[in-house]
Design goal:
Number of helices: 2
Distance between the termini: 80 Å
Number of strands: 5
Largest sheet: 5 strands, antiparallel
Order of helices and strands: HHEEEEE
Helix content: 10-25%
C-alpha cells in the first residue's frame, strides 16, 4: 500500500505545487536560452572572403587616384588590444590623401579607422563602423591631407563572426607600399 504525504485539507494540484513546477520550468528555460547565447558563432568562409577582398583591391588599383590598399582579417573583439588588426601604406614621395573606399566580406560589423602621417606627426582622420556584407562604402575625409608620407588602416570586429576588411586610399601621388 502506498502512503501519501498530502494532507486531506490540501487539494490535489495545490497552488504551492504549481509554483514549484513553474519555477522549475522557468529555470530550465532560462538555462537553455543562456546556453544558446554562449554558443560560438560560425566562422566566415575565409577563403571566399579573402578572394572577394583581393578582387575588390584588383578593381580599385586600376582606378584614377589610387594610392594603395590593404586588407586583413577582423576577427578579434575590439575591446581587446589583440583584436586590432591593420596595415600601413608608406609613400616614397609625399601624397595628397582625399578619402578611402572600404568593404568588409564576412559576417557582422567591423570598425575601420584611418590615421595619416604628415612629416613626423600622426593625425587621426576618422573611424567608421561598416557592415561585413561586401557593400562598398565611400569615406570622404573632413579635409584633404597634403604631404602625407604614410597612412595606417586599422580595424576590429564589433559584432558577428568577423570578416576580411579591405580599404582603398585615394588622392594624388604614387601608390604606397604595404607593411602589415
Amino acid at each position: 500500500m502506498r502512503h501519501s504525504t498530502r494532507s486531506s485539507s490540501e487539494p490535489l494540484g495545490s497552488v504551492a505545487g504549481m509554483y514549484s513546477r513553474c519555477a522549475t520550468f522557468a529555470l530550465v528555460g532560462a538555462l537553455a536560452v543562456g546556453l544558446v547565447g554562449c554558443a560560438p558563432e560560425a566562422e566566415p568562409d575565409w577563403a571566399a572572403a579573402e578572394a572577394a577582398a583581393q578582387e575588390f583591391e584588383g578593381v580599385a588599383s586600376s582606378q584614377e587616384g589610387f594610392l594603395g590598399s590593404g586588407s586583413f582579417r577582423v576577427e578579434g573583439d575590439e575591446s581587446q588590444a589583440s583584436g586590432e588588426s591593420g596595415v600601413v601604406l608608406s609613400y616614397p614621395d609625399d601624397a595628397r590623401v582625399d578619402g578611402a573606399t572600404t568593404a568588409c566580406f564576412g559576417d557582422g560589423t567591423a570598425r575601420v579607422g584611418f590615421t595619416v602621417r604628415v612629416g613626423s606627426s600622426w593625425i587621426g582622420v576618422t573611424s567608421v563602423e561598416i557592415e561585413c556584407d561586401g557593400a562598398e562604402q565611400v569615406i570622404r575625409f573632413d579635409e584633404t591631407f597634403d604631404a602625407v608620407n604614410a597612412v595606417t588602416i586599422d580595424g576590429a570586429r564589433t559584432q558577428g563572426a568577423g570578416g576580411v576588411l579591405v580599404a582603398v586610399v585615394s588622392g594624388m601621388g604614387s601608390p604606397g607600399t604595404v607593411t602589415p
